[in-house]
Every structure is written in C-alpha cells, then in structure tokens.
Design a protein that fits this description.
By secondary structure, the chain is of the alpha/beta class. The chain has an eight-stranded mixed sheet with strand order 3-2-1-4-5-8-6-7, with helices on both faces. Strand 1, helix 2 and strand 2 form a beta-alpha-beta unit. Helix 1 packs across helix 2. The model has no long low-confidence stretch (mean pLDDT 96).
Length: 246
C-alpha cells in the first residue's frame, strides 16, 4: 500500500509537472516488486508492463493487480534477450531499483533498446552517502537504526558481515551497495557516459518513501545545489532521463 501511495501521491504528480505523458502511455516497470507502484500507474491511465527478478514478487503483483489489465512476468534484465525485448515504451520506471543493479553501464545500454523516440526514464533511489544509503535499516541489530553507520570505518567490511541472527540476503545486499557506492555524482556521470541527458531532477531531504513512517516529503531546495551537502543530506532523488542519441 505504501508503494501505491508514494507513486500515486508523489511520482505521478511529478511526471505530470514535468510534462511526461501519462494518460494512454505505454510503461515498463523494471523491478516492479510487489506491484504497488505499477497498480498506481495503471490507475492513472498508463498501459502497464512490468517484470521482476523474483517470481514470488511477480505473483504478489498479480494478486494485487486483481482485474487490472497489466502484463507481468518474472525476468532478469541481463537475460539474452531481456524481458519484453523488441517492445518499446514511452516511459521506463525504476523505483528504488537502479542502486541494486550490479552492472549499471550494461543496464543503461539496455534501457536505450526499450525506449520509443522521445521516450523517458524515471529513476529514483536513496543516494549511498545519505543516512541509510546502504539500506542498513533492514538489519535486526540496533546498529541498523544508526544514521550513517555504513560510512564508519570497518562497518561494512568487519562489523555488519559478522552480526548474528541476520537474514543472509539482506547482509549480502548491504555489502553489495557498499561496494557500488551509488551516489548522486556517480549517477549523473554514468548517465552521461551512457548517452543519456538528465532533463529533470528533484532532491528530497525527506524522501517520499518515508510516508510509511508517517513523515511528509521535504524538498532539498538550496541544499540540493551544493554537491557535498546533497550527497550526505538528500535521502531520495528522482531523475528524468532522455536518450541523447536521437
């Protein structure tokens, strides 16, 4: 439900504000998860397709979809060919997914093949250097509730991997995020290197995802224009990309 609320209340209005076609537009949700966001996009009038690497999540998406007309499938972006290869879309959405992709350059190249002329990509993620940028809040340990603990010396290499009674996949994913360090500057550099232009960007001191904690989103405004401060203080970003190969 919180995924539905975030997309319905914040991301869809943002798309409309940025003049991105919504009504009747074909959309591909890459990493659709449990389908909350995709259902919200459908209800806003988009023609929705989505896939996720976890078949369990796709099953949940189908259950949530109910009688909504959406095309859903399990699949890996790095398959040859990738899911829905040969189809093109007006909009790709990666809602807090891009930071988890191991081969980001390859992913960005694949995104080109999905886009219609004048198509766009909406990518959101929590920057790595922000308070919980390694997703350490997933840990059972009280350490996971400490802001910026992932930036402390040896925390990622010695402390977190040796915590007891933790869910192994969560610990592994936190470690992977620590190796990739997907910050704002890195994202902007990767986008340019892979022939994408950043058309729009929005930085939040309080991410829209934090509505699940009863918090309202807060835009970074002036602080978002200061490179060092935004890496540390911005907890959520939204980027709108366009291919620069047109």
């Amino acid at each position: 439900q919180y995924e539905y609320d975030v997309v319905a209340q914040y991301l869809i209005p943002l798309l409309r504000k940025w003049d991105v076609p919504v009504d009747g537009a074909r959309l591909l949700d890459i990493g659709c998860g449990d389908g909350g966001g995709l259902s919200a996009l459908h209800d806003a009038g988009m023609i929705c397709t989505g896939f996720d690497i976890e078949e369990r999540r796709v099953d949940l998406s189908r259950a949530l979809a109910g009688d909504r007309s959406m095309v859903l499938s399990p699949g890996n972006l790095y398959e040859d060919p990738p899911p829905f290869s040969g189809e093109t879309f007006e909009l790709l959405v990666l809602h807090d997914v891009f930071e988890h992709l191991r081969q980001k350059d390859e992913a960005l190249k694949i995104f080109h093949s999905y886009l219609k002329p004048d198509g766009r990509i909406l990518i959101t993620f929590p920057p790595y250097y922000s308070a919980f940028g390694a997703h350490q809040q997933l840990l059972h340990s009280p350490l996971g509730k400490i802001p910026f603990i992932h930036l402390a010396p040896f925390a990622m290499s010695k402390v977190i991997p040796n915590l007891r009674n933790e869910h192994g996949p969560f610990v592994d994913e936190i470690g992977a995020l620590g190796r990739m360090k997907m910050g704002i500057a890195m994202f902007e550099r990767l986008s340019g290197e892979n022939e994408f232009t950043i058309e729009r960007r929005k930085f939040y001191l309080n991410s829209p995802n934090h509505v699940r904690f009863g918090l309202r989103p807060t835009e970074a405004r002036v602080l978002g224009s200061i490179p060092l401060l935004r890496e540390l203080l911005v907890t959520g970003v939204a980027f709108l990309l366009k291919s620069s190969t047109e």
